[in-house]
Each structure stands twice: as structure tokens, then as C-alpha cells.
Amino acid sequence: MSALPAEEVGEPSASHGAHRPQSLLLSFFGALVVDADLPPLPSVTLLDLLADLGVTEAAARATLKRMTQRGLLTRGQVGRTAEYALTPLAEDVLRRATERVTSPAPFEHPEGEWTLLSYSVPESRRDLRHRVRSRLTWAGFGGLRDGLWIAPGTVDVVAVLGRSDLADVAGLADAFAARPLPGTDVHRLVHRAWDVPAVRAAHTWFIDTWSRPPRVAGSLAQLTLLGADWLSLLRTDPGLPASQLGPAWPAAVSSTVYRRVFDGLAPAARAALERSLRTHGH
Length: 282
Hints:
This is Phenylacetic acid-responsive transcriptional repressor. By secondary structure, the chain is an alpha+beta fold. It contains eleven helices and seven strands.
């Protein structure tokens, strides 16, 4: 992550509950390490955590190496023990993601408020197009047509596109705070910009999964997996207006389930992390 965009904290999964090792580690760091005044973490703590989540040691070590190369982690050595700490870049990104993660109502926006964004990226710049689309998706935008995106609520577009790696796009983007005029079929618009059945299914999966006993052992692994699942859901649902989505839209239930499970797991997970640090030399 030569420049880690916030959306990569909640990168899409191949399937429900399937997360890349980097996503799991970012979930762990975001929940338990950022602003917690902890010393660098011995590699065995991170390797044990990933092992509990089904990641092989080889894949875990490769992930730590890659995250260090991309500027997410710094690596130190104490005797024969490797230690890892977050870089300022990673801390900044995780703090910004935490604003959505901890919001009491992350799926709600003022009724009738929308943000329209138009931009142009040359077809030859596919790498840039991909970064823009990923950044916009994390920020809550859905595509109406090529180059025209819409998001519920009022989005700080400067913050979304203002990073140095998107400087070329920021100068070619125009954003507007918008409201539907009479006669606009908002229901059709929402269903054109987002796969609403898939968003509902993501909520249903999250609620069903975390209303049952956790699928991994240990509070540290459980909290990490909960965070990764929650970030994936936040990426999937930008806060679509419930009034346009049929009866019993499940977003509020998802928020309740997340907060209840997190509050139940966090004390034991923090204690488990402290035990691991003491055991391995801190």
C-alpha cells in the first residue's frame, strides 16, 4: 500500500465471510491497536491470530512482508523476534475508517439528500479507473452510467478524491449536492445504481451469521472476523434510503447486532491481546 486508500480496509470478499489475510489484520489493528498505546507486536501474536482464522503460516508471513513493503507496517527485530507496528499512513487510514465503523447509524442519511459526481478518466488509464471506482464505492457511490455516480446523503468529495494518487481525477471531477425533482422515480434510480437484492442479502447474511455462535474459536479471532464482516457490509450498503427499499429493510438490525456482538467480545479480546504480549516479551 504505497498509498492505502480507506476503501481497502473494507475490500470486497470473494464470498460472504471469505477475507484476505490483509483485511483480517486491518480489522484487528483497527479494533484493538490504533490509539491503544501498545508496543510493537511480536510476529507470533499476529501469526497465531491468523492461524486461528484459517490462514497458513506461509500466507501469514507473506502478508506481513507485503504490508511492510507497501508502507502499512514497520518491522523491527528484538533478538530473534520480529516485531510489527502500524505506520502513520496506516493509522490515518484506519482512524478514518473507524468513523464509519463506530457510527451509531452508518446506514442512515437525511431523507432526500443525494450527491452527484461526474468525472472522466481516459480508457487507457485502467489502473486509475479501478482506484477511482474502488474509492467511490467505499464512499457510498453507485454508478448510474459511465462517469456519472450518485451517493445518498452529502459526501465530502474533496476528501474522497483529494489524495495524491487521485490528483489527476480530482481536477476532472464535478460534484453537486442534489435533491430529486417532482416526477423523478427515486425507486428506479436506486435499483439502477445498486444491486438492492444483493445488499439485502448481505445484511441478512450478517444478521444470521452473528446471531449464532461465532464460527471461529477465541475472542481475538472472533472480534477480528466480526470487524472484517462489518467492513464488508459497510462497503456493500452505502446507506440506501429505507423508504425506497420495501418493508422490513434490515440495516438497523445489522447495526444493532454488530454493536451487541462487538461490546460482548471486546473486553475479552483486549485481555487476550495483553496476555499474548506478556507471554512473548512485553
